[in-house]
Amino acid sequence: MMDDDMISMPIGQDFTRRLLEDAGLTAGMRVLDLGCGGGDVSILAARLVGETGQVHGIDIEAGPLNRAGERIKELGLSNINFSHLPNEEIQQDDEPFDAVIGRRVLLYLPDPAAAIARVSQLLRPGGLIALHEHSATMTPASLADLPLPVWVRGWAWALSYHEGADPARGLRRYGLLSGAGFDVADVRAEAVLQTPTRGYPLAGLVQAVLPRILASGAVTEAEIGLETLAARLADERRQSNATYVADMMFGAWGHKSREAA
After folding, report:
1. Which of 26, 65, 102, 173 is disulfide-compatible with 34, CB 3.0–4.6 A?
2. Residue 172's domain is classified under what CATH number?
3. How many structural domains does the chain have?
4. CA separation for the pair 144, 134 (Å, rounded)
């Protein structure tokens, strides 16, 4: 059996699913997925909106979009399409969207308030916005000494900083949405945990973004030791007999003000 420290399922996938369900993403909706990457969130949304709905994913990187296209073919999903374009190039379509969603997209935008204002124009009056971000401002935390996951987590966030991320973006969510004229319905947070018997896919994450981590200069390939990283992480967490809070996820949703529209 593959160790769960190496499993490639995206961190927070269940959090995203519950966020979209609770926000009211439902059958028949026309949805825009910002920064869709490899399509994980688009696929979640497509299953919620069903055959009568439609999901349009956009991203500025062609590579992940190509993989996303291959995945939806394998899954037989016909209600998703993808476009390669920057957020700045999003244009008003003939038909407004019922919902705009995104995960870890505002984190990397230099002017998230302007981006939210732009996508607001693509929503129908009363339309939904639901966003999932991470924050590095309160973690890591543990009562035990766990140097390896703390170190590895540091590589991941060093990559984020190198690529222009704001580690406090999750905490700024309410102000960003309300400032753009949205009626905020809910804001929530949830910890990403590791226990002696349950890891999280940190080694898999490192493997997925290894070239970008190395390009950031935070660590060398020899220091990472990818071949043994999953086993070393698993050994340390099993020996620690401790709970480790690796990250915090923030979710928020709201609706475009009908009055403003």
Report:
1. 102
2. 3.40.50.150
3. 1
4. 23
Which tokens go with 238?
């099993």
Q: Which tens digits make up the pLDDT trace of 103-159?
A: 988 877 778 888 888 889 999 999 999 999 988 788 888 888 889 988 888 887 787
Count of CB atoms within 10 A of residue 168's CB? 13
pLDDT digits (tens, 9 = 90+) for 122-137: 999 999 999 999 887 8
Examine residue 37 and state whether it is found in any structural domain, yes or no: yes
Q: What is the pTM of this model?
A: 0.84
The CA-CA-CA angle for residues 44, 46, 47, to 5°, reads 70
Non-local CB neighbours of 212 within 8 Å, separated by 6+ positions = 159, 163
Tokens, residue 116? 């939210």
Bridge partners (DSSP) listed for residue 183: 255
Q: What's the CA gap between 88 and 186, in Å, rounded?
A: 27
Contact 132, 15 (CB under 8 A): yes
Whether 5 is in a domain gets the answer no
Does residue 207 lie in a domain region?
A: yes
Note down the domain range covering 58. 13-256
Kindly compute the dihedral angle of the four CA atoms of residues 150, 152, 155, 161, in this order, to the nearest 10 degrees: -40
6 within a domain of the structure (yes/no): no
